Task: structure prediction
Amino acid sequence: MGTTTKKLLRQYVSERIGDYRSLTTSGSGSTTTVVDTSLKNYSETDDAFRGWYVLITSGSAAGEIRRVKGSSGYTASTGTLTVVLAFGASIGSSITYELHRYDPTEIHSSISQAIRDVYPILYRGFRDESIVVDNILGNTDLQLFASSTFTSWTHSVGTWTQETGIVRNGLQSAKGVASGANATLTQIVKPNVDSFTSQTAKAKRWVYATGANVARIQINWGPSTSNSSYHSGADQWELLDLGSVEVPSNATQAQMICEVADGNTAYFGTGWLSFGSVYRYTIPSNIIQGPYTVEQQVEESNPNGSYAPIAGLKEGHTIRLHGTGYLTDPSSDSDATEVDGSQGELLVNKATMNLASALGSRTDDAIFDRAYTRAEQRYFDLIRITGVSMTPPSAQWSNGLFNVQTGAPVWTNASGSSAARYIDFSGARGTAVL
Result:
């Protein structure tokens, strides 16, 4: 799959409207000045760059955008630009930067909009394995990690980090290090049942440890705790099984716990906690069209094994979804989106159309009309002639055993907030789906 960085996308769009200049400072400036004698090649007149924009692309201030002063903003004799607001660091010698007549922020916005506009002509394919049959834990496969915390989990005790070397499923596992007390990674769930204490709970999770009596899983009910057996310490992944546990009559909570004994280290992969059948599952938000294929893991003991069309749901088995979503919207100059060649050119032309339209609405400069017209013509020529469309595969449904609650790729509920999309497996439980 091709990739094009944000920096290159900005360059290509800027070049379409004649606004790209990539330069390097020749001397030491300050937090408000940029010194570059090569600017004399562009103008020998003071204040030649009134209201232009400086984008720093290296050094401590990389990524910062500042506008050149409207008065006394350029001294031609020394090649010095003076900006209205200070940079976060002094701009020294040999710092790369870009000089634009138009705000690079608007260029970035036009690219972001184009990424949405070209869908589904251009798209990013997704394969998701975050759904486990009957599981009610959030982020059960421990693949979501933000701000030093595993999403949906509480780092109650110990040090918990992402591990990419010892992995059972996905791209990472949870590494727990206990020092001074047992380390615990916890999550409290609220089963959607009428009578919590009349239920039977089941739980399993993949665990890796190199010593016996080091790691296990638990459910804390408030007054009491149910425990799995410990990992054997065999220096391998083991699927720890809490078994079938009747919820105590005095239970006040259901708290899932990954535990590491004091003074030890262990790793936790995917797992699940069930209080009975679950029929409806939220489709991951990055899949905005589809899913096109829905499969179920054949062997629970083999997370990386084969998947097959669903004939009936199996508790604890992973569901695999294939669908499509937007291309990646790169956040930093080094980040990339998943196109190049003619596909990248299609995206750039759409972004140029967006930028020319936005800038042209605020000025009578004919350059924007020409830029829009050229980009629009090239955009549709690419679709018609080169066949750049990454056409999604046909939907593959499983004999009416499930359906998908669909809508527009982006839709909201009555309150204006984003609404989730669901996949319903009622038919796979023996009930017809209409």
